[in-house]
Amino acid sequence: MNEETKKLILTEMISHLFLVVAFSITWVPFVFFGTKLWSAGLWYLLSLLPFAVSLIYISYFALVVRAMPKLKPGRYRLKNLKRSKMPVIWFIHINLNRAGLAVLWVNFIKASKLLTFLYYRAFGADIAYNVNLSYDHVIADPGLVEIQENVVIGGRCYLGGHTIVKDMLVLAPIVIKQDALVSMNCVIGPNTLIGKSAIVGFGNILNNCELEDDAQLMQFEWNKGSPSAQSRFDKRMNKRDERIVKDEVLKHW
Q: In the sheet that 162-165 helps form, which strands lie side by side, from edge to edge?
């Protein structure tokens, strides 16, 4: 077992520890104090208990995130952890985010605009309070995401500030400017800027691109990514096909 594998196993164990602690500080106090309030005849205070436990839950993640190094945009080799610690830091960040989702308390948090705002702030996101987020959205790297005022994010949207190409981890920010609309089933990848009052239609994929202010994308218009990204992909595929044809010709000779 090489050194890189040992480090990844260690970070995985740390991530599971986050999950255990997150579970303990939510469900255990909820059951304990809920039982106490019910026994004392203070059942009318039970409605306040989920909100109080949510604040404890959010405070825990805020303290842990503040204690960790921040994510820095850049390109990092996963097979060379001695040169850069950022892949390990990212791995801990992403698993901490997963721990928050796995406990299931986040389902209650997402039902409240205030708690959702505090939750993503705790994870390091630069997000405005008056952002309208659907209940079933996913933000994979909150520390790399900026969402400005009056932005609307539709259902089943995914925002992720990372991608992995072969052995290279790429981290880059996502910025969505004020009054923008991102419709349902959209994927917003790293190094993406959505301009002010821009409209992204249903089912589009934005990755490593910039959408100008007041721009409009029809539904599925960029369902294979932005034209620039698709052009780069097509060029790579054409080069690969040319190599295959060349190899086949050489075989016959």
A: 74-77, 168-171, 162-165
Digit-coded pLDDT (tens) for 33-47: 999 999 999 988 898
Q: At what angle do helices 86-102 and 3-24 cross, to 10 degrees?
A: 30
Helix or strand run (H / E) with residue 27: helix 27-39
3-state helix, strand and coil shares in percent for the chain, rounded to the nearest 5: 45, 20, 35
The answer to whether residue 57 is domain-embedded is yes
Among 201, 64, 181, smallest CA distance to 132 is for 181
Structure tokens at 115: 């708690």
Domain span including residue 213: 125-225
The CB-side HSE value for 113 (13 A sphere, CA atoms) comes to 8
Buried b (16+ CB within 10 A) or exposed e, 137-163: bebbbbbbbebbebbebbeebebbbbe
Give CA separation, 202 vs 17, 231, 246, in Å: 38, 22, 41
How far is 97 from 55, CA to CA, in rounded Å? 16
Q: Cα–Cα distances in Å, from 87 out to 84, 140, 173, 192?
A: 7, 15, 16, 21
At residue 63, what is the residue type? L
Task: Please state, as a whole number, how many other Cβ atoms lie within 10 Å of the Cβ of residue 237.
Answer: 10
One domain for residues 172 and 221: yes
Per-residue pLDDT reduced to its tens digit, 93-116: 988 888 888 777 888 899 899 999
Residue 248 lies in a domain: no
User: Do 122 and 62 contact (CB within 8 A), yes or no?
Assistant: yes
pTM score of the predicted model: 0.84
